[in-house]
Design brief:
mainly alpha, single chain, globular, 0% strand, 153 residues
Length: 153
């Protein structure tokens, strides 16, 4: 059941979030970009903690995705993104424990934020799609039991 829920969640996120990143790249002002950078640095700091604080990481990751949606200046998109945060946080619990995922997550988000800050909608959308593809692979691998077989960091 969890696998099916995550597959459905990622299908919806693939529809919404690359477009969200693209819109943010064309609409975000200095204040929004500062907010994205603050959220990103909070995420990076939480991921670098030893041991990682997964609850804080989930909060910062979710906040960053909401900041991207808010940067689009589209209130409907922001409300939709807020509505899926419970599922997003459940998915993060599964995927972030996969070996190497914390470093990859930070790198993915740095790429997304850099593209938005540069005003590059093509790169922003592509970076978000890559991030979602990798996140889904890690989440599904965790569900399939790879995490229990030593694949976690």
């Amino acid at each position: 059941h969890q696998r099916h829920s995550f597959e459905e969640l990622f299908a919806v996120r693939r529809l919404l979030e690359p477009a969200s990143a693209q819109w943010a790249a064309t609409r975000a002002g200095a204040a929004e970009i500062d907010g994205l950078r603050r959220a990103l640095e909070g995420l990076a700091a939480a991921c670098a903690a030893d041991p990682p604080d997964y609850e804080t990481i989930r909060e910062h990751d979710a906040q960053l995705h909401l900041e991207i949606a808010a940067s689009t200046a589209n209130r409907v998109l922001l409300r939709i993104m807020q509505a899926i945060q419970d599922l997003h946080e459940q998915q993060l619990e599964t995927s972030l424990r996969f070996r190497g995922r914390l470093d990859r997550t930070v790198a993915d988000h740095r790429r997304i934020v850099a593209a938005i800050a540069a005003g590059d909608p093509v790169e922003a959308g592509g970076a978000m799609l890559d991030h979602l593809d990798q996140g889904e692979a890690a989440a599904l691998a965790g569900i399939d039991g790879l995490a229990e077989s030593g694949e976690v960091r």
